[in-house]
Specification:
This protein is mainly alpha-helical. Helices cover 65% and strands 2% of the residues. It is elongated.
């Protein structure tokens, strides 16, 4: 059952919940780690928790409305919303020390705690590294077609950079580049940090070049 909301709002819910979901996977160590835990069955729980957190925090929905939207009981939704992110991370870090029963009971509380932390990080601009890498590749292809050599080289050389980029030290791998006749190591300290994604990095560099009249 879908809530009676405007289509654009539903799209926003889905878009943000997906970002929270992918960030949650990162926090869990990626799909490889989930396979190692033998807990791929957690994925539906994480997806529902991502929707629950977004509906509560962004759209101020009640527990009953959230339960109706994602098809869970009100008590389960309440457990998700009350989950402790720190406790969830602690249990994951000590997963091997848990009893079989504790591992079986992790689903709701762990998913809720992880989704809460993921939501906080996404709101701070720390999206999933997987999404950022996909964004970098798409931008690289687009820039290559637009014949913008310096932007293409920047995107090509920032593979593996963690977002948000906090300072020029995080961009050492492009210090060697020359951008419109200026060494990148001169440009990078003059950008405005933090930089949340590859597109904003290009925008910052472009604005610096424009300030230099280039």
């Amino acid at each position: 059952m879908i809530l009676n909301v405007h289509i654009n709002t539903e799209e926003n819910i889905k878009y943000l919940a997906e970002r929270v979901f992918f960030k949650s996977i990162d926090l869990l160590g990626g799909l490889d780690k989930l396979s190692e835990y033998r807990t791929l069955t957690w994925l539906p729980s994480i997806a529902r928790a991502a929707f629950a957190i977004v509906l509560k925090e962004e759209f101020l929905k009640t527990e009953d409305e959230i339960a109706e939207f994602i098809g869970l009981t009100r008590n389960t939704v309440r457990a998700i919303l009350r989950a402790d992110p720190n406790l969830a991370m602690y249990k994951l870090e000590h997963f091997d020390e848990l009893t079989t029963e504790e591992k079986q009971n992790l689903k709701v509380h762990t998913a809720g705690g992880i989704a809460k932390l993921a939501y906080k990080l996404v709101k701070e601009g720390q999206d999933s590294e997987t999404l950022m890498e996909y964004c970098r590749k798409l931008s690289q292809e687009a820039v290559a077609q637009c014949d913008t050599p310096w932007a293409y080289l920047v995107l090509k050389n920032i593979k593996g950079v963690k977002y948000p980029i906090q300072n020029a030290e995080d961009l050492k791998q492009i210090e060697h580049l020359e951008i419109k006749g200026i060494e990148a190591k001169e440009i990078l300290p003059n950008l405005h940090y933090p930089i949340k994604n590859p597109a904003l990095l290009l925008k910052e560099i472009k604005e610096y070049l424009q300030m230099k009249g280039l």
